[in-house]
Every structure is written in structure tokens, then in C-alpha cells.
């Protein structure tokens, strides 16, 4: 369920193009290049947000309230509607707000799947900047998008705060499946199969070449071509190096911010100040990566911050995009630390720096590793900001995929699909490691 969210948007767009194009598994629907295809891709991309946010909250609910309702004669449906659903309302609102943000900033999906006349604020900012050089028009659209993002983030923050204060998480052992769980399990299997369909179609299509079935598309990635000055495999190394640099920037910044936001101030003024800081740090979660790249392009063009020719420009942009996700992964862990642990360490003579190392950082170390993997996965698939900032001689793999898609010829399409499978495989491997390091269901958005 989590894999679709971390798949690069370019990969998701290509997978759905294969599904809905003429001759594809769902080509009879005639949705290629239409809004329904974009909506399907956005649903595919955001299922994980709801699963992680609502599922994590549901997992932490005290089951005794629903059991008491059942004992008083309520049916399973009545107990769910009157007891469980109201307690899940904050997480549902929070997940809905975040899904709205991700759909409003889905640049790669719209760019790949949208046909003529199908555009969003994202694509218009890109077109105005790269094709018409209308920086003023692009700036107006960016500010408009920012206002919408701030409103949606405010709703998500209020819902998240309500969920944190309305109930306390309860740890309880998982039970074995029962006969009554069969419909839910069957529905989950169906959803998982639907989510797997685009990826399966992508992999199968990557094995089809102009000469039949085989690995020709993958072998072509290692040769010279007219799209980039080096083999496509070089773009894989560039993407991995960029992801590593982004992780080294994002994780320390997120840890520092989490240590500040994880405190419990006693005065209302300090609490409001931390709430404002938390909202400011969450802005990159909803602000489009296209807007981030555009902002970098026009803001970092004069000394002493002229970074247009710096190789660190793209990693910094990726770190900014990944920062909110890293923060939301480690912050709940720090907020869940019993303050008596710090007090006991201080009472035993530990100085503040030793309390920080021995209590806070020791407990958050494993979630921080998971957050680092999440930041790396986000960086690997980032396309919006990179489209503005990537250097011509060092493109990342998503940039190469889009270049291949823009070239005529079946061999270029086959290479783009094969490169998409490679990018998806690397991302999934990173996320597999993240899931092993993740703490329970922490890490919701």
C-alpha cells in the first residue's frame, strides 16, 4: 500500500499511460490523455497517505470503547458509526487535507498524462517560465498556489492537533484474523491488486521491444544515445549521489527542528510560536516542487547566494522538499518520550548535552534512519524542482525519462519505460528498508 506513494510521479504517469493507451489493458475506456486518467493516477498515488494517517490513528484507538458498545447490544455497524468513526474524524480530515495538497501539486502526473488543454497551476507555472519566460505571470500563480496551500495546511494542522489531544494512543497486541474479517481482507486484496496493475503493466511493457520480447530496452540504457551525453546508467548514479546529499542536508535540519518542536512550553505565547514554526516548516509539503524550483531560480541568482552553477543547488532543493516528511516521521517519537526520563538523567548528574545524546537522540536514532531512507526515496523521484534546476551535463533519472518520452520513435519509448522500472525498483528497495526501521505506525503526515 505504501509503495505507490514513493514511486516517482513520472513513473506513475508512464504506468497509467500504458494502461489507458490504445492497445493497453484498459485502452477500451478511451481515457488516454483525459482527466479520468489523471484522477486515477492521483488516487493510486495517494492511497498510502490515507492508509498511513488513518490506519495509524485507528491502530492506536482503545478497543474497549467499541467492545462496551457491542456488549450493550450495538451491532458492529452501529458501534463503528457511533464510536469508532467519530474518533477517527481528525485523522480523516488531516488525511483529506494532505491528499488535496498532493493532488494540487502533482506536476509530473499531469505533465505525462494530460492531453492538449489539460493543465493545472503546476504545468502553467512551468510553461510560463520555460517557454514564454513570463516570470511575473509564473510568480502570480505561485503566490496564488501558496495561499491555497497555507489554508489546507492550517486545516491539516488543526485536525492533527485535535487527534493528538482528543485521545491517547493505546498499545495492544494484534489478534488473529476471524471469519467475520473475511470481507475486509477480501477488499484489501482487491485494492492491492488494483494498485499492482499499473506497475505490472509497466514491467511487462518494458520487456517488449521492436524485435519481440527481451531485455533490449534495458541493454539500450547502457549505450550512447542522442538524449544525453552519457549512458542512462550514469543518470542512476547522479540520482543516487543527489539523494545522498539531500539526506545529509535534510535529516540534521529536521532533527534540530524536531528537538525544538518536541518540547512542551508552559506559556501560551511560546506554544503559539512553536505552532507557527511547525506550520512554516510544513509549507514545502504542500508547496509545489515546481514552485520551489522556480523560487530557487529567481532568488539564488545574485551574490553572495548565487548558486545557479553550484552542484549543491539540486540537493538543497530536494532536501527542502523532503524536510517536512522527515520532520513528521521523527517528531511524534520525540513528543512521545516520557519527560521523566530526562528528569531522571538530569537528577543523576547528566549535563544537558548528555541528556540530549543519551535520551532524545538515542530513542530517535532508528526513526531517524527510517526518515533518512524516506528522504532518499523522495529525492530519487523528485522531478518538479529538478526540471528547473538540473544541469544539462548531469541530469537525474526522472529528467532523462521525460527527455526520452519527448523523442519520437519506439526505441526511445522502450528506453523510457525500462528506465522507469529501474527507478521504481531502486525506490522500492529504499522503502523496504524504511519499513523495517519504522517504529510501529509512526510517521503519518
From TrEMBL:
<keyword id="KW-0813">Transport</keyword>
<dbReference type="InterPro" id="IPR000515">
    <property type="entry name" value="MetI-like"/>
</dbReference>
<feature type="transmembrane region" description="Helical">
    <location>
        <begin position="273"/>
        <end position="300"/>
    </location>
</feature>
<feature type="domain" description="ABC transmembrane type-1">
    <location>
        <begin position="236"/>
        <end position="434"/>
    </location>
</feature>
<comment type="similarity">
    <text>Belongs to the binding-protein-dependent transport system permease family.</text>
</comment>
<keyword id="KW-1133">Transmembrane helix</keyword>
<dbReference type="Pfam" id="PF00528">
    <property type="entry name" value="BPD_transp_1"/>
</dbReference>
<keyword id="KW-0812">Transmembrane</keyword>
<feature type="transmembrane region" description="Helical">
    <location>
        <begin position="92"/>
        <end position="115"/>
    </location>
</feature>
<feature type="transmembrane region" description="Helical">
    <location>
        <begin position="312"/>
        <end position="334"/>
    </location>
</feature>
<feature type="transmembrane region" description="Helical">
    <location>
        <begin position="37"/>
        <end position="55"/>
    </location>
</feature>
<keyword id="KW-0997">Cell inner membrane</keyword>
<protein>
    <submittedName>
        <fullName>ABC transporter permease</fullName>
    </submittedName>
</protein>
<feature type="domain" description="ABC transmembrane type-1">
    <location>
        <begin position="1"/>
        <end position="157"/>
    </location>
</feature>
<keyword id="KW-1003">Cell membrane</keyword>
<feature type="transmembrane region" description="Helical">
    <location>
        <begin position="135"/>
        <end position="161"/>
    </location>
</feature>
<feature type="transmembrane region" description="Helical">
    <location>
        <begin position="182"/>
        <end position="204"/>
    </location>
</feature>
<dbReference type="GO" id="GO:0005886">
    <property type="term" value="C:plasma membrane"/>
</dbReference>
<keyword id="KW-0472">Membrane</keyword>
<dbReference type="InterPro" id="IPR035906">
    <property type="entry name" value="MetI-like_sf"/>
</dbReference>
<feature type="transmembrane region" description="Helical">
    <location>
        <begin position="235"/>
        <end position="261"/>
    </location>
</feature>
<dbReference type="GO" id="GO:0055085">
    <property type="term" value="P:transmembrane transport"/>
</dbReference>
<feature type="transmembrane region" description="Helical">
    <location>
        <begin position="413"/>
        <end position="434"/>
    </location>
</feature>
Amino acid at each position: 500500500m505504501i509503495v505507490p506513494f514513493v514511486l516517482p510521479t513520472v513513473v506513475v504517469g508512464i504506468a497509467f499511460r500504458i494502461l489507458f493507451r490504445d492497445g493497453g489493458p484498459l485502452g477500451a475506456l478511451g481515457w488516454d490523455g483525459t482527466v479520468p486518467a489523471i484522477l486515477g493516477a492521483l488516487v493510486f498515488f495517494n492511497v498510502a497517505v490515507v492508509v498511513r494517517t488513518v490506519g495509524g490513528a485507528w491502530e492506536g484507538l482503545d478497543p474497549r470503547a467499541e467492545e462496551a458498545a457491542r456488549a450493550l447490544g450495538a451491532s458492529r455497524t452501529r458501534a463503528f458509526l457511533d464510536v469508532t468513526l467519530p474518533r477517527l474524524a481528525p485523522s480523516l480530515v488531516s488525511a483529506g487535507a494532505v491528499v488535496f495538497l498532493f493532488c494540487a501539486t502533482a506536476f509530473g502526473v499531469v505533465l505525462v498524462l494530460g492531453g492538449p488543454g489539460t493543465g493545472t497551476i503546476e504545468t502553467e507555472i512551468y510553461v510560463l517560465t520555460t517557454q514564454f519566460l513570463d516570470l511575473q505571470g509564473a510568480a502570480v500563480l505561485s503566490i496564488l498556489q501558496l495561499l491555497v496551500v497555507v489554508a489546507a495546511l492550517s486545516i491539516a494542522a488543526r485536525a492533527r492537533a485535535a487527534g493528538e489531544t482528543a485521545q491517547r494512543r493505546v498499545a495492544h497486541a494484534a489478534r488473529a484474523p476471524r471469519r467475520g474479517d473475511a470481507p475486509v481482507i477480501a477488499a484489501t486484496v482487491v485494492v492491492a491488486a488494483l494498485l499492482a496493475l499499473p506497475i505490472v503493466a509497466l514491467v511487462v511493457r518494458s520487456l517488449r521491444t521492436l524485435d519481440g520480447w527481451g531485455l533490449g530496452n534495458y541493454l539500450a540504457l547502457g549505450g550512447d544515445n542522442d538524449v544525453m551525453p552519457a549512458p542512462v546508467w550514469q543518470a542512476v548514479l547522479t540520482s543516487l549521489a543527489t539523494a545522498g546529499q539531500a539526506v545529509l542536508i535534510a535529516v540534521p535540519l529536521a532533527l534540530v527542528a524536531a528537538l525544538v518542536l518536541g518540547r512542551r512550553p508552559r506559556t501560551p505565547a511560546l506554544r503559539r510560536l512553536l505552532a507557527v514554526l511547525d506550520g512554516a516548516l510544513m509549507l514545502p509539503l504542500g508547496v509545489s516542487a515546481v514552485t520551489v524550483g522556480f523560487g530557487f531560480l529567481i532568488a539564488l541568482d545574485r551574490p553572495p547566494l548565487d548558486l545557479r552553477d553550484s552542484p549543491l543547488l539540486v540537493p538543497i532543493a530536494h532536501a527542502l522538499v523532503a524536510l517536512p516528511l522527515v520532520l513528521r516521521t521523527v517528531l511524534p517519537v520525540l513528543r512521545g518520550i516520557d519527560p521523566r526520563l530526562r528528569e531522571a538523567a538530569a537528577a543523576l548528574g547528566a549535563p544537558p548535552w548528555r541528556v540530549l545524546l543519551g535520551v532524545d537522540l538515542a530513542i530517535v536514532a532508528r526513526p531517524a534512519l527510517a526518515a533518512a531512507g524516506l528522504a532518499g526515496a523522495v529525492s530519487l523521484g523528485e522531478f518538479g524542482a529538478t526540471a528547473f534546476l538540473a544541469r544539462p551535463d548531469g541530469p537525474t533519472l526522472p529528467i532523462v525519462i521525460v527527455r526520452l518520452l519527448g523523442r519520437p520513435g519506439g526505441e526511445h519509448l522502450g528506453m523510457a519505460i525500462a528506465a522507469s522500472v529501474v527507478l521504481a525498483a531502486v525506490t522500492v528497495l529504499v522503502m523496504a528498508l524504511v519499513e523495517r526501521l519504522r517504529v510501529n505506525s509512526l510517521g503519518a503526515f
